Request: fold
Amino acid sequence: MRVRTLAMVLLAGGLALSACGKEGTPTDSGQAAPSQSVAADVSVDGSPTFDAIKARGKVVIGVKEDQPGLGYKDPTTNKYSGFDVEVAKLVAAQLGYGEDKIEYKAIPSAGREQAIINGDVDYYVGTYTINDGRKEKISFAGPYFVAGQDLLVKADNTDITGPETLKGKNVCSATGSTPIKRVKDQGLTDKITEFQNYSQCVAKLDEGAVDAVTTDDAILKGYAAAEEGKYKVVGKTFSEEPYGIGLPKDDKALRDKVNDVLQASLDDGTWQKIYDATLGKSGSPATKPTIDRY
Ligand code: GLU
Reply:
């Protein structure tokens, strides 16, 4: 039953997004995720990561696969879609690698730093909050979006209206994420259910085994949009989650290059088009971030 529910969540997400997530496909509102033109003769002097990509002839990108609207793998087509995936493709294209030269690796929140440190991925794009603790191990380009922690509850729930109402409630989130840390650090509740992936939390919410799922509003809005009428996002954010592209710590050359790519996309309208075709459809606000070249 649990597996079936999860499959339904994922399938519904795929259906809701199937009209918009694929490159060049018209969306409900007539927009299409822009096709990325692939840059030629790119060099990123002094970047060991870029050298490894070149030697391999393809880019390996860490992503999420169960977050509709952000990083989502359609179980029927195995295609990835969403805002994060489009950002990942944009960066790859500007490094000289088209879609056919991308390998995606789905890595959950708790595994991100180690995957980057090990060189299992060249870079990671998946609702990855920039913070000082993580910066000790890896580096970040961006931010390319700013989300905030929020709560997902059943549509008919009336008693959970914000973080201060969670006492005694069973709250679910993902291991290794900033939202679960905040719930623990702030003692918002002592009943915490923890999984690798947020879709597992949503399945538990569906079963009535937990009262709320907590993570970034952008992620929760994707689940709510995927199954219309079933859940609601409380809508009172209680943190700032600036999303960065995770990179090997000492690869400053690549970080500068990726920041240039993000800045150009903010300036030339590409960021807006990507947003409109993905996150904009589940109702996240389109506030352009300011790149932080720390
Ligand atoms: N943005 C938060 C984080 O990086 C939550 C989302 C996630 O787990 O990917 O921890």
